[in-house]
Design a protein that fits this description.
The chain is of the alpha/beta class. The protein contains 19 helices and 20 strands. The chain has a 7-stranded mixed beta sheet with strand order 13-12-11-10-9-8-15, with helices on one face. The chain has a 6-stranded mixed beta sheet with strand order 5-4-3-2-1-14. The protein has a 5-stranded parallel beta sheet with strand order 18-17-16-19-20. Helix 16 packs across helix 17. The two termini are 20 Å apart. It comes from Macellibacteroides fermentans.
Length: 643
Amino acid sequence: MKHGFTKVAAAIPGVRVADCNYNITQIQALMLKASEAGAQLVAFPELSVTAYTCMDLFSGKLLLDQAEKALAELVHSTRDLPVLAVVGIPLRTENRLINAAVVFQQGKILGVVPKTYLPNYKEFQEQRWFSSASELKLDTIRIGNDSYPMGGNLLFETGNLTVGIELCEDLWVPVPPSSVLAMLGANVIVNLSASNELIGKNSYLRNLICQQSARCISGYVYASAGFGESTTDLVFAGNALIAENGSLLAASKRFEQDEQLIISEIDIDNLEHDRQVNTGFSKGLDRMLFAEAVRIPFDATSVEGTLTRTIDPHPFVPEGAALTERCEEIFDIQVSGLAKRVLHTHTQKVVVGISGGLDSTLALLVCVKTFDVLGLSRKNILGITMPGFGTTDRTYQNALDLMDSLGITSREVSIKAACLQHFEDIGHDASVHDITYENSQARERTQLLMDIANKENGLVIGTGDLSELALGWATYNGDHMSMYGVNGSIPKTLVRSLVEWVANYRVDEQSKRTLLDIADTPISPELIPADENGNIKQKTEDLVGPYELHDFFLYHFLRFGATPSKIFYLAENAFGTKYSRAVLKKWLHTFFRRFFMQQFKRSCLPDGPKVGSVSLSPRGDWRMPSDASSAHWLHEIELIPEN
């Protein structure tokens, strides 16, 4: 797919033990289904041609002959299908029997991967019938009249997709073959398995697969034996799983009596990005099992279609219990960072500008918790409300109520007279509500906070968040500056969730009511006078666009280095019909234009704690020339059709 996705499938066919003809008929039907769905790769369970539970029947010539004959028929009958298929089968070579994965496409066998680690448990005694890949001397295998590449070091390549294969138990050892294959270039790992069900085993298996995909920075396609396998002693529930870099994308239902096919898309571009920036990824290759890879090309069809995987519209904000856990962890990180800075500077006081908005509220809550942890009096937190020309009654009253209920020291310093004097000094008409009018107020407030901090021997705590820094929505040397910024790596969409979390779990009932009203207040810098009814006239999201969109753009641009066209495509999938293509294009253009233009503000940010994988600190997370050209990015956006 043109945006870097590879569509993959994991299939669980119904089987009959030792009935190869029946089994390949089921495999063929699922291959057709996967191909029609646009899958470029489909994986089947271990020994799926014969069924896994044949036991001592594997020692007989007839079953092995029938398996090879059935494989030949399967490869021939699917010659018109473009999908790359991986099936499990017992094969003979070097007077041994191997548990093998056969890879084929469009009527041609491309290679054979033998299983390396054979279990010998009470319930799994594969060593009774099979030999390990490590015992083989040859690197080819004869099937019928032809020879094919064989080995655990085979990689199957097309474009930017490289597939490596391991079988069942290979995953469970300390250094799985997939780790080596990933360092050799495999970005999608296929595992053909036959793992029986036990209490608690499924959860362990899912965690193992997700963790391995994370360690390998890869996709992982897992297909395990299901209904039809012998239940003489064991039950096979039919597990199909697709994971990507630690996240589970798709999973089958267990204990289904019908065949199953799960499909999802693995983002190869994102995997390549993470491997590129993780400079330690390929270290230690010389100590691993395989020094070299055998690379086998295959053809891939270009697929255009709808994503089946879910694209989260709010990547910074999880749902349910995960949100509660994330908010608690972030809040503790903020508090720990500020506590260290307070102790290091030997200060007893902090100064925070309180506007009644989300960002200053969160900063105040962090200060309160920090002082509680350090055993310092909340009265040493100086909350300064600085009403100006655009301050509304709602935000002003919320600021006063919150400072009162939290028990901090509050002061009020109006900036109106000082700003009017400043306008007169610089020759600015106060009736002209331009950028000079707005920024003068922001800088006056910062000057007050800094001077009060000097007077009180305290620290000015910054309130600006990650989304504002990305857009440059801050006044240079105004609210852009502080002595320690506790919100600098928290996006706006998450700031609201944090305030609501603190309201519900960390404060008294009076503070809770105020916090929930603050969370429900439109976001505004309040630098322009209110309307005739006293309501906020200057709404930030009307001017620069919805923060949920900008946070989405920011996440995919910084986290994965995604192109504008891909971000647009993902946004369409994530938000559905909520925004038209024209609206998405408009705000995407705004995001990239402002992001490049406002880098100079991010080049001199104050210290502050990093809380997530996306941050804009110039000291380690984002180093960008302030005069870099945005031409390529904006041009790509201009080429996106609105219809």
